[in-house]
Amino acid sequence: METKKIYVLLQGYQCLFGDVYKRLKGTQYNHASLGIVDSMDEFYSFRSKWGLCIEHPFRFNKPYKKDVQCMIYEIEVTSQQYSEIQETIQSYLNQREHFHFSYTSLLLGFLGIRHNFKQGYTCSKFVAEVLEKSGVMSIGKHTSLCLPTDFENTLTLTHYEGLARNYKSSLDY
């Protein structure tokens, strides 16, 4: 059976909420995104300013991006799961205007209060939901409660850990 690889990228951004989150949760990482191409050029996630977005974490168009601490986990999936992930992400992208980043969801998830906002997402809820819908894995709790630390505690195959500037991808910049 043919398999493919996908990636969960955790990043530790320096910001007020990020610093509070990292201290309270005892982790370096406060953001999660999902990559489905080996080039590591595109990751999908939700951000407070843009909602659903395509991220390019190893393109350093802003100086601070070079110093972001990263952890990349590798997950092997079947061709069928990979296709389902692609379709799910495309479905979100096609309806992008209906979704938004939800601070309320972020707060409720952090407090451990299960909720069901159909259009409000956080980065980790999005990644967990895509992985769950495609049958790749479940974090073991409702996706609204998923935090970046849950991926640290669940995933095991580390592809990379370190500063973004030190990551050597297959892209030529």
Automatic annotation (TrEMBL):
Protein name, as recorded: Peptidase
Domain of life: Bacteria
Source species of the chain: Erysipelothrix larvae
